[in-house]
Specification:
The complex is a heterodimer. Chain A is an alpha+beta fold. Chain A is built from eleven helices and 14 strands. Chain B has two domains: about 1-75, Beta-grasp domain (Ubiquitin-like (UB roll), Roll); about 85-170, Orthogonal Bundle (DNA polymerase, domain 1), CATH 1.10.150.120. In chain B, strand 1 (about 1-10) and strand 2 (about 10-15) form a beta hairpin. Chain B starts with a strand and ends in a 6-residue tail after the last helix. Classes of the chains: A alpha+beta, B alpha+beta.
């Protein structure tokens, strides 16, 4: 039995927004794999929950908009992002990142929108969504707004979403994925049921010679209090040969990161991870794009 | 008190529940389906795994409120009417996969889901598909072996007894398992 004060099953997004506006203590629950764990631990004890669990018509599924934007419903299970034909064809690295949180059972309860709204720096989809430059659509009784993911995170477990706002869509515009190949590298002590000690996503677009980096996106989880993109490192290696870029990217990325000590790993170890994972992710992303390195 | 209407182990069920309950609470405490184990209660150990509309799910992190109209299968629904074991259960016996047994009902439910895909898998693929379960006796080798054997028995190219195939098909129908294309 959970310490829940009230549970309301919303019948639509508009209904959920109304319920959230009416009760100043109400919070959204979707898959439940973060919220219920926090209720259990006491952090959210006595929670007033507005459930969007059943809003499949409005919030579930991955679709391709006519302009090529990949549109992901926030209550789409991790597993359904991984297996979605649209996601696999257009944003494969995100589909692969969605195959890494928890275990198989968690990935058919946990949702990609919950991963974004929980706002943990260790969220497995965070660095990949940052690399893809996702746009996040929010809705409340006050209206709708769109937040680029680079402006989403405000601190550990915190984001700009107001309590009464519902994430209604995750959008990845065509220019942010077209021509890119990528790799999400999760480092943990086990291969399943593990929170990332470090997460790194690298997307690269190679020039026609399959050697020169035309464009690159490099993003991290757990390298700072929030997921981050290391734009300085991106700018520095853009135009370089893949092998040379791989050589330099680690130090460059590290200069922009702020890893810390935690019980999972020391700051020094995380610094080592940032250097090494940047290099390996870049190489792997380039290999998938046809580079022979 | 709210009323849950759903199908459990092939039978229509109506049961009163408190909206604060997890599906684990309702299955164990109200319906006495005690094959569903209360383990970590935070979605890590997999001991509470049941099939919800054919999908292996941790029932500890699933509110009963969400189960309206669903089809649920637990280990209690696996045996045939005459009490004979389902081929998945039998494989665990034949491979000596059970030590203390606490994790086994959950793993069997994942195994039912895996066999239900109608495909065969490598041992590495099976290990990943079973990675949402912890066995604190650490008897993983025989567990993976049992799943490997029953997947091969039902979905492989070798001879499979009609009884075994029929027994699995009966359960698959109960659970609304759909073989992948």
């Amino acid at each position: 039995m959970y310490d829940i004060e009230s549970l309301y099953e919303a019948t639509s997004v508009a209904d959920a927004c109304r319920a959230l506006a009416e009760d100043p203590q109400a919070m959204v629950i979707a898959g439940g794999t973060d919220v219920l764990v926090k209720v259990r631990s006491g952090k959210f004890a006595g929670a007033h929950l507005v459930s969007i669990h059943g809003l499949h018509d409005e919030l579930d599924g991955v679709e391709l908009a006519p302009d090529g934007t990949v549109e992901i419903g926030p209550i789409t299970w991790f597993h359904h992002v991984t297996t979605s034909p649209v996601a696999r064809e257009r944003v494969l690295t995100l589909a692969e990142a969605c195959d890494t949180p928890g275990g198989p059972q968690l990935r058919v309860s946990g949702t990609i929108g919950g991963n974004v709204c929980n706002a943990a720096t260790s969220a497995d989809t965070a660095s990949t969504l940052v690399a893809y430059g996702a746009l996040l659509d929010l809705q409340s009784v006050r209206g709708t707004r769109t937040v680029p993911i680079t402006e989403w995170y405000t601190g550990p477990g915190r984001c700009v979403r107001e309590r009464d706002e519902v994430l209604v869509k995750i959008r990845i515009p065509r220019e942010n994925y077209e021509g890119f190949t990528g790799h999400y590298f999760k480092y943990g002590k086990r291969r399943a049921l593990e929170i990332a000690t470090m997460g790194c996503c690298c997307l690269v677009k190679l020039a026609d010679d399959r050697r020169t980096i035309d464009d690159i996106r490099l993003a991290f989880g757990v390298a700072a209090p929030t997921p981050i993109r290391t734009r300085g490192a991106e700018d520095a290696v853009r135009g370089m040969d893949v092998a040379e870029a791989a050589e330099k990217v680690g130090e460059l990325a590290l200069a922009e990161c702020h890893p810390r000590d935690s019980w999972r790993a020391s700051k020094e170890f995380r610094e080592q991870l940032i250097r090494e994972m940047s290099r390996r992710s870049l190489l792997e992303a380039a290999r998938k794009g046809g580079a022979e390195v | 008190m709210r009323i849950l209407k759903c199908t459990i182990n092939g039978k229509p069920v109506q049961v009163g529940y408190d909206p604060r309950e997890s599906l684990l609470d309702t299955l164990r405490n109200r319906l006495h389906l005690t094959s569903v184990k209360r383990g970590c209660e935070v979605g890590e150990c997999g001991a509470c795994t049941v099939l919800i509309d054919g999908v292996a799910t941790d029932s500890c992190l699933y509110l009963t409120d969400w189960a309206q109209g669903t089809t649920i299968l637990t280990c209690e629904g696996l045996q045939a009417a005459d009490g004979s074991l389902n081929p998945v259960q039998q494989a665990f016996v034949d491979d000596f996969a059970v030590q203390c047994g606490f994790c086994i009902p959950g793993i069997i439910m994942s195994a039912v889901e895996i066999v239900g895909t109608g495909k065969t898998y490598t041992r590495d693929e099976l290990r990943k598909m079973l990675s949402g379960h912890l066995c604190r006796c650490t008897g993983y080798q025989n567990i993976v072996g049992a799943v490997e054997d029953v997947v091969e028995e039902i979905n492989g190219t070798g001879a499979c007894s009609e009884e075994a195939r029929a027994a699995f098909a009966a359960v698959a129908q109960k659970a609304r398992l759909v073989a992948e294309e």
